[in-house]
Amino acid sequence: MITMIAAAGENNELGKNNDLLWHLPDDFKRFKQLTTGHHIIMGRKTFESFPKPLPNRTHIIITRNKDYKKEGAIVVQTLEDAFNIAKDDPKPYIIGGGEIYKIGLPFAQKIELTRVHETFKDADTFFPEFSNEKWELISEEEHPKDEKHKYSFTYETWVRK
């Protein structure tokens, strides 16, 4: 089951200048818990935004640059190649960025979306629009803002109808 996992603002904002617009420690913990032990599929810029490869996950980087190589990651040129490498993983995750989410949406069966309850005017990357006609919200878990979280957010799990 191909799953997209993301955190997005009220207007689907993902980030700016290859960085997140917020710091939500509990969302990071959830991301780690869900993706550990699985293949994570991402674009080059998303991979380069990490200080180092994330532990206990197989990193698959999609880039048009045929000469791109990174220790600790598998580099491919297409989403189809990424899916082929992850074919034995029952739950590979597409983790971004915006362009990879856009091309991955037609293939995804599930979306784990952290909806950050704020709008961010200076975002330059966005999660793709998806419709309630094709997707069903099967669970929601609200998280209020607190001393560690500047914004309230909701964990939403969507499945393709």
UniProtKB/TrEMBL annotation:
It is an enzyme of class 1 (oxidoreductase). Pathway: Cofactor biosynthesis; tetrahydrofolate biosynthesis; 5,6,7,8-tetrahydrofolate from 7,8-dihydrofolate: step 1/1. Coiled coil: none annotated. It catalyses: (6S)-5,6,7,8-tetrahydrofolate + NADP(+) = 7,8-dihydrofolate + NADPH + H(+). The keyword NADP applies. Signal peptide: none annotated. Residues 1-160 form the DHFR domain. Keywords: NADP, One-carbon metabolism, Oxidoreductase. It holds the Pfam family DHFR_1. Its EC number is 1.5.1.3. Key enzyme in folate metabolism. Catalyzes an essential reaction for de novo glycine and purine synthesis, and for DNA precursor synthesis. Belongs to the dihydrofolate reductase family. This is Dihydrofolate reductase. It comes from Aequorivita iocasae.
